[in-house]
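Methods — Computational structure assignment.
A single polypeptide chain was analysed. Its primary sequence is given first, followed by the predicted tertiary structure written as structure tokens.
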Amino acid sequence: MLERIGNCRIVEEIASGGMAVVYRAVQEPLGRTVAIKALKTSAAAEENVVTRFEREAKSLANLQHENIIHVYDFHHERGAMFIVMEYVQGIDLYDLLEKCGRLPYDVAAVLAMQVARALDYVHYRGIVHRDIKPANIMIARTGGTKVMDFGIARDTSFGDLTEAGTGIGTPAYMSPEQVLGDKLDARSDIFSLGVVLYQMVTGKKPFVEDEKKSAMHKIRLEKHESARTVNPDVPRELTNIIDRCLEKQPRDRWRSAQHMVMALERFLAKHVEMNHHARLVLFLKSQGVITELEAEQYLNPAALGAGGGALQQPNLQARNMVRAGAVAHGVALGVLLMFLGLIHVAPLGATPRTRTITEAKKHPATIRIDARPWARVFVDGKPAGTTPFARPLDTFDGPHLVRFEHDWYQPIEKQIDIGANDTAATVMIDFEKQGTLAPGKHKPAPEEQP
């Protein structure tokens, strides 16, 4: 086994496939644990494989999204090539399904939504993954999801290495057009994600080879059995989302991964009342992937002391009881002070009492915000960041003013009002259709847009 690659010290081999080997290593100047993907010597003899490996590194290096593996460096030394990337401690979806058969439908929906967010991000940048499958979906111990292995992705920044009429990918997860070797777009990845989501909730793939017909034949010509028929616990709304992913004709599927994300968000708003990462952590704990102590550490980061993690705390339960007591004491003191204040203010007919009661009635809500091509966003006058956002913004019900700013256009403001019975709102703007160019500016060319 190799001992060093660049400034990284190899610790152990963690995976091996037909084309590459993956090592766990330590990037010594930073003390950071990384994963190193090394192209095998046998594969390096094929020019097409080498080109794909280099393109994978370049494509991933330009992607920064919480649901996509990050690339840190690329080395070409001693006649070999290495990609230094983020190390994710967790379990891939393939191994998780092997362990538990199928997943609770809410857990499956959370995972699918996170993958769909990653796909929406790469599709907007002209990349089609072409190999979405359980083995390429990593679930972190902290509850996040990462899409991996862009080795056969099609990036419009480069020429296509796949000849027309050639199917490339993993057969059971291919779209009908992928089986035929047709030119693919983003909707092919949506079909593959539909296959993965079906497998998560039923424990089986929708198109399985038998003695008479191959899986690829069934993908092209046969209707899949409803997920709800295989597993009656799957809600009809989620079944409908899956069915739309698995339409034979691309035009009949979700128009984009963004639309699939929105559908899954609506579904999850009704079925998951906790933080989505927390739901995944609890499921990983129930399957023995992480320990109860680890789950407590991930779910309650505030419990960590300055000296380290939960493993260094000899009596975590006692600390939690003390903290709960302190919170209760603080709440009681706050209520007492509020009443004392009201006693003094009431004779003057002042309004703080009404304002306090109104604030107490606020309900948590979220706002999903998107802008094309991008925008700096301000909510109620406060900066919220630059689109695209990885997840909806947390807020409360009531009126909100959302302001979009772009360097080439006049700002756009949208007023929304989230009702007390609503949990989410969506604001989407397109500067090219709705905006007005700023004085002295021209419509930005594609290469001028981030």
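Note: The longest strand covers residues 409-418.
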